[in-house]
Write a structure and sequence with these properties.
This protein is an alpha+beta fold. The protein has one helix and eight strands, in the order αββββββββ.
Amino acid sequence: MKNLIVLALICFSTVVFGQTNECKKFRNGKFKIVDEEVGNSIITRKGSKQIEFGEESGLKLEFKVKWIDDCTYTLELKKVLENPNNIEFPVGMILTVEIIETKENSYVQKSTSNLFDLVFEGELIKIE
């Protein structure tokens, strides 16, 4: 019985730490989100800067990235670079993004906001 408990703890820690290591490989890069409702987006993240570009809308935003842990980070809107539809953005909005599943060339994220109750889940495919 004692051996079974030790084995279960080892397996659990391997899963938890394995996920953490997999999250790290998605800290930087170029990603694509495919979304039939709002259109596809291209995300380029390097260090503490992320640029998001909506292919359909032409909207281009710059965010400050702050990593909380290996699989969780926040995004704070710094600049609206292009806004052809004059969309208004709330002041002080911070998105919290949690990587909930990693795959070979993509990850599934859950995003929440400090201003809204909406939860968004989506898959980001690494393209570079």
